[in-house]
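Figure 3 (text version): structure tokens given as input.
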């Protein structure tokens, strides 16, 4: 009888500990925003020389999470599967230069736009290509399943291009451009502006852009509560100057939309 009582006490203790750990794990998960990013998308989100994830969107997200009394975890993902990662619940937000499009609005909820951008064509600085029509018969690279692809598909020049090569990220595309395997790359203006400051005299941007666009943050369909909480934090950051401070750090000026 005494042994039975001892065993019951042990079982009760184990159950208590398991329940407490489970509840703590659940609470920690609910207090953490898991953000899906492309960690090669400078200056929005990328790895620095110490392999730390940094960038405008990284600082912007950290500041928003602080306003929301939440912690943040950045999860590098395959950008081609970003909407699937979100809908499956493996991430809470898509936040890394994520362009708002009508097609994407059918899959995710969006915050209000926070940055303006454009899809542009970049070539080597000494290239003879000077306008979109010069892309006829040329090999063009871009990031797969990105708004760069949408912009090119919507341009009349697409049918005249010899070949479109898709890459998993912009870094690989720019490397192929520098090696001569590509004649041009379609890329976010914000991204190539950053690389042109790092590699001066390497690239040039054609004056004709393919498409203006705006960045927003993607939230899982049905999670209006998180969208509302996040948007409230972003609005507060605009009002108290936090957003401007982050923008000036990365762009030298306040580019955040109000």
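Below: residues designed for each position.
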């Amino acid at each position: 009888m005494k042994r039975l009582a001892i065993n019951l006490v042990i079982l009760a203790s184990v159950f208590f500990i398991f329940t407490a750990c489970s509840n703590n794990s659940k609470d920690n998960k609910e207090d953490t925003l898991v953000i899906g990013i492309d960690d090669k998308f400078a200056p929005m989100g990328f790895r620095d020389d110490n392999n730390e994830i940094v960038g405008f969107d990284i600082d912007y997200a950290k500041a928003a999470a602080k306003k929301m009394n939440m912690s943040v975890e950045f999860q590098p993902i395959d950008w081609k599967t970003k909407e699937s990662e979100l809908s499956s619940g493996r991430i809470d937000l898509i936040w890394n230069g994520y362009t708002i499009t009508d097609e994407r609005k059918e899959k995710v909820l969006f915050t209000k736009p926070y940055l303006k951008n454009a899809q542009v064509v970049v070539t080597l600085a000494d290239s003879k290509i000077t306008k979109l029509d010069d892309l006829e018969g040329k090999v063009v690279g871009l990031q797969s399943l990105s708004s760069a692809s949408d912009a090119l598909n919507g341009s009349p020049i697409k049918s005249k291009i010899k070949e479109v090569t898709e890459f998993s990220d912009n870094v690989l595309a720019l490397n192929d451009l520098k090696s001569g395997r590509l004649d041009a790359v379609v890329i976010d203006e914000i991204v190539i502006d950053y690389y042109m400051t790092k590699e001066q005299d390497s690239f040039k941007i054609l004056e004709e852009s393919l498409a203006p666009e705006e960045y927003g943050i993607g939230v899982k369909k049905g999670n209006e509560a998180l969208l509302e909480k996040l948007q409230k934090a972003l609005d507060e950051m605009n009002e108290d100057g936090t957003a401007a401070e982050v923008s000036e750090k990365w762009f030298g000026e306040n580019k955040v939309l109000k």
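The chain has two domains: 32-114+216-251, 117-213.
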